[in-house]
Amino acid sequence: MWRYCMQHELSHMKRVIWRVIQRIDDANLSFLQVLPKDYKRAMVRRLLSILPKAYPDGMIEVAGVLFRLSGSDTAKLMYVTIQDGVAAYLRRHLAPGMTVIDVGANIGFHTVLAAKMVGPTGCVHAVEPTKETVVELRKNVQLNRLSNVMVYPCAAGTATGETTFYVRGGHGAQNSLFSDHLDRPVLSTHLVAIRRLDDLIQGPADIVKIDVEGGELEVLMGMERIRAENPKLRMVLEWCPVMQENTGHGPTQLPETLLALGFEVDIISPFTAPLRSVADIHAILPKVIGQRAHMVDIAAARG
């Protein structure tokens, strides 16, 4: 039944895409008329080729990567496949032998992608505190026969010990260390282990991805050694000004802190913009808050 529903959903998406390209063919738009129809159709075929493929037992394949999903994960995987700026950033900057730290790994969308790209000579450290999600994360790592992923079932922050974890259900992506959220009520709470990345992970790091529902600054402050020992470190983080305020920070404090630490900061999705100064950050803030999800992905690089 799951496979039937998934195939039906994908078939509908394909029909919609073909209708769009037909309208482009028929459109009386000068900038589109210069493109040959074969070229436009080839673009659509490329898009169709990267759409997820459904398999039995709740499995789905995206660009050669297998995932076992619940229904609530399907839409997110399609988003990651087609338009996720984090996935695009990883594809652009990762190479065999590199080391990635994925903080807020969820069920492993970016963990598995990164592990495939860095290969057996590289390594991915996946940090995820939601117990049920860790189970799915490990299943997806095993499903892809990856031996270069280390999973840490804990939260990351500025302290080592235990802390309250706020559960909001779904696939765990909205669970966090903070009671306030954009729109998800707290369903339950329990204690989870919390560690500083500096205490948790040793060795080099090339890219750190941080998506922890407003706790990005805490993770950043808990990785002083990692930042110091890796002068060419790249990071990609979620910046949600509203959630930053919910956690007691200023709405622009995350990108401003990155600038102060010597990083060059850019918004990478859902739109692109350089953030070279505090003035740039404050100027772009209304547009960031005005996004449908009230958040953007930012990249930070140096060296």
| Helix content, binned percent | 40-55%
Number of domain modules? 2
Number of strands: 14
- Would you tell me which CATH topology of the largest domain applies? Rossmann fold
Q: Number of helix segments?
A: 13
Class of secondary structure makeup? alpha/beta
Q: Which CATH architecture of the largest domain would you pick?
A: 3-Layer(aba) Sandwich
- What percent of residues are in strands? 15-25%
Main sheet specs? 8 strands, mixed
CATH class of the largest domain: Alpha Beta
User: Helices and strands, in N-to-C order?
Assistant: HHHEEEHHEHEHEEEEHEHHEHHEEHE
Strand order of the main beta sheet, please?
6-5-4-10-11-14-12-13
Question: Rough shape?
Answer: globular
CATH level-four homologous superfamily name of the largest domain: Vaccinia Virus protein VP39
Rg, Cα atoms, Å: 20 Å
List low-pLDDT spans.
Answer: 1-6
User: If you average the pLDDT, what whole number results?
Assistant: 82
How far is it from the N-terminal to the C-terminal residue, by CA?
51 Å
